[in-house]
């Protein structure tokens, strides 16, 4: 699968632009602020219906404009004939975004997620290691949402029930604990526990399936200097969690939020049995997150029976020569499908990709955004 064409109207710094891409390697070059990352985000948005860098869709609209439109053609090569799908995403300020597949709307926007798998690798991916548990949950949830439509539905439903329960807890707290309607809370606890268990089980199975891929990539990139592991930490794993959850109700009311559940899960990254966050070097942390993304690529490829689009944003500036050489070797071997690379130094990229076979195209981005 690959993205053949992309049209952008009022998307970030692109007022009106049209690109035709190589099904193999596409290199976006130009100074910082010229729109390289914004173009990657447009591809990500077209595939997943959201930006990779912010949660508010309206932030993707060009300054002082009222709307944006993304329109692209995805191609799935076939033995008989290539199958194409036109995806159009538009947003008018103050309104809900519209997603069309071959000019027809989805019954549910979530149906779009996972149809066109994509993996984005960015310089601050190391925040997955150094940051809070929320960032690691978001990573796992994003991968599983592309892999498993049922997981995505469970996740959305869980977030909805959790929001409703938290609103109710705040209401009871404002009453200083008087007139707490425990029967009403029960109606939220039951689905939250049931859906939470499903989410927990799927996350647990995902880690089991995902870890060997990550370990294999880390071993390749690091020349097997150390071993890594991922440990899933969840309240739901505790014995008698359902009873503990109910017993925790008074604390929830005092805190005005649900303090136990899968929304508090974490994924601990280990190196030689120790916390990567505390004991891993910068090089080890970078290697780990690259292995995470390549493991994500493998999982999506196996589930979707097609190679995901791989977006590499400015990673050559953040990697040493050894790791760059390993990645280039994978590109040369044809391990990936359609690939997008951004770089502010075109001469460096041309040298690195000199021996990569196939259709390698370069795109000179415009001037830096003021």
Automatic annotation (TrEMBL):
* Pfam families, A to Z: SMC_N
* The protein's role, per its UniProt record: The RecF protein is involved in DNA metabolism; it is required for DNA replication and normal SOS inducibility. RecF binds preferentially to single-stranded, linear DNA. It also seems to bind ATP.
Where is it localised?
Cytoplasm
Listed under GO cellular component are: cytoplasm
Q: Which GO terms describe its biological process?
A: DNA replication; DNA synthesis involved in DNA repair; double-strand break repair; SOS response
UniProt organism field: Fibrella rubiginis
Q: What is the name of this protein?
A: DNA replication and repair protein RecF
Give the GO molecular function terms: ATP binding; single-stranded DNA binding
Q: Which family does it belong to?
A: Belongs to the RecF family.
Keywords (A to Z) from UniProt: ATP-binding, Cytoplasm, DNA damage, DNA repair, DNA replication, DNA-binding, Nucleotide-binding, SOS response
Matching SUPFAM superfamilies: P-loop containing nucleoside triphosphate hydrolases
Indicate which residues the UniProt annotation says bind ATP: 30-37
Q: State the superkingdom.
A: Bacteria
Q: Where is the RecF/RecN/SMC N-terminal domain?
A: 2-351
């Amino acid at each position: 699968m690959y993205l053949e064409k992309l049209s952008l109207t009022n998307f970030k710094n692109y007022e009106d632009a049209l690109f035709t891409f190589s099904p193999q390697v596409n290199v976006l070059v130009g100074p910082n602020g010229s729109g390289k990352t914004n173009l990657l985000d447009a591809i990500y948005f077209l595939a997943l219906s959201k930006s990779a860098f912010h949660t508010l869709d309206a932030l993707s609209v060009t300054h002082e404009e009222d709307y944006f439109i993304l329109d692209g053609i995805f191609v799935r090569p076939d033995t008989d004939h290539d199958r194409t799908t036109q995806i159009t995403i538009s947003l008018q300020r103050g309104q809900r975004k519209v997603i069309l597949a071959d000019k027809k709307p989805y019954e549910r926007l979530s149906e779009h997620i996972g149809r066109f798998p994509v993996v984005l690798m960015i310089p601050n991916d190391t925040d997955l290691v150094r940051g809070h548990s929320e960032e690691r949950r978001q990573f796992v949830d994003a991968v599983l949402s592309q892999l498993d439509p049922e997981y995505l539905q469970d996740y959305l439903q869980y977030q909805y029930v959790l929001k409703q329960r938290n609103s109710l807890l705040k209401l009871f707290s404002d009453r200083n604990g008087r007139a707490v309607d425990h029967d009403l809370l029960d109606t939220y606890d039951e689905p939250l526990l049931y859906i939470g268990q499903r989410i927990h089980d799927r996350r647990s199975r995902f880690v089991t399936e995902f870890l060997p891929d990550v370990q294999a990539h880390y071993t390749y990139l690091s020349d097997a200097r150390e071993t890594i592991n991922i440990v899933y930490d969840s309240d739901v794993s505790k014995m008698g969690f359902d009873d503990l959850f109910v017993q925790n109700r008074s604390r929830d009311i005092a805190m005005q939020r649900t303090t136990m559940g899968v929304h508090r899960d974490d994924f601990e990254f280990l190196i030689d049995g120790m916390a990567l966050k505390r004991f891993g070097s910068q090089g080890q942390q970078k290697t780990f997150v690259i292995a995470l993304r390549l493991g994500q690529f493998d999982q999506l490829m196996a589930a979707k029976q097609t190679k995901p689009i791989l977006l590499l944003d400015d990673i050559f500036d953040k990697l040493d020569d050894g790791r760059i050489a390993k990645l280039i070797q994978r590109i040369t071997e044809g391990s990936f499908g359609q690939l997008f690379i951004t770089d502010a130094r075109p001469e460096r990229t041309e040298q690195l990709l000199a021996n990569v076979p196939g259709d390698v195209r370069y795109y000179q981005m415009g001037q830096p955004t003021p």
